Amino acid sequence: MNFEFTEDQLMIKETAREFAQNEIAPSSIERDINAEFPHEIVKKLGELGFMGMMVSPDYGGAGLDTICYVLALIEISKADASCGVIMSVNNSLVCFGLEKYGTDFIKENYLTPLAKGEKLGAFALSEPEAGSDATKQKTTAEKQSDYYVLNGIKNWITNGSTADYVLVMASTDKEKAHKGISTFIVEKGTPGFGHGKKEDKLGIRSSDTCSLTFENCKVPVQNLVWEEGKGFNFAMNTLNGGRIGIAAQAIGIAEASLEASVKYSQERKAFGQKIADFQAIQFKISDMAVKVDAAKLLTLQAAAAKDAGKPYHREAAMAKLYASKIAVECALDAIQIHGGYGYVREYLVERYLRDAKITEIYEGTSEIQKLVIARSLLDAK
Length: 381
Ligand code: CAA
Description:
Elements: H1 7-24, H2 28-34, H3 39-47, H4 66-79, H5 81-101, H6 104-116, E1 121-124, E2 140-144, E3 147-158, E4 165-171, E5 181-187, E6 193-195, E7 209-220, E8 224-225, H7 231-267, E9 269-270, E10 273-274, H8 279-307, H9 313-338, H10 349-358, H11 366-377
Parallel strand pairs: 1-4
Antiparallel strand pairs: 2-3, 3-7, 4-5, 5-8, 6-7, 9-10
The structure holds acetoacetyl-coenzyme A.
């Protein structure tokens, strides 16, 4: 087992760190207050090759491994977790599935601009009555000659109103339950495709989350991804990689909480000495450092398994479960270390807590991750 990163991996990490600290971090408070989508940053992430990191250069991607992706996503999320989720969804939930399961037509026409960062993607699985219980899709896609007609509502869609292309899971055969679900790529502006208002969220406020509506929305047959009836497998296989991305996002938040706490505790004085001299603070900082490293190891383990072509659904679930938990814990500890200053926007750590919470919810709640882990170990339902 080799714990050393390659030169390329270290270079990607450094590029991401520099970009994140110089171009993302300075405006993050404003974007959070105004819930403002980072259009310019997303464009530059595309120019850096960060919107299609693992896609083959044949389709406009950077052709990097999942380890590079994790390292970059940690750095981006450390500066602003909203940018982290935008990047993660485009890479993990959109580009990955299109490259693995898409036809040449789909790869040339949709994957290539998405991987280059010229277009933005979204992934629409959740519905008002199908969140954790994702097999209960109510959205339908009825085949009529050379197109499918989509009807239904999707909820909580990251990049929802901004995305140029949306991957939509819909039932093509109700009788077959989850084996009758299919995946379609739908272009923004298609008649019958609309979106609700941008959700006013607790955290990751500058990312764009909204509901999507499909009313007799006609989608050409060539926009079916993979095969009819494979849509649920498509969503699950894609989400396994997505969970690695969200674990990396959570680590970014946890590491930012740790770094802010180290800095502040060496500056702040109380009772005649810097607070870093108190064991109460030292113990919190050492606990945070151990948690961050443990989460990184779990996440890199999942990334390495994916790169090696081995099964990684359990590893990805473990990484997301643990990283999201410790992101919340580290953010809470960082606030406690900062005292009153931790409770105001200027010191950032209050945002870390608000941003961290969603990592325990989206791309499968912590309870769903436990279910995936347990089912992989037990012969049980
Ligand atoms: N990897 C691959 N396949 C998986 C899987 C995984 N992690 N989990 C389940 N599956 C497969 C099963 O093998 C089964 O396949 P077959 O029918 O071909 O044998 C199929 O999915 C159905 O599984 P179950 O029979 O176990 O169905 P279930 O209803 O008991 O459990 C579930 C399914 C695991 C709960 C699943 O519904 C699930 O993962 N729910 C969470 C959904 C989720 O993560 N939503 C996130 C929304 S997207 C999002 O948040 C994006 C964003 O914008 C940020």
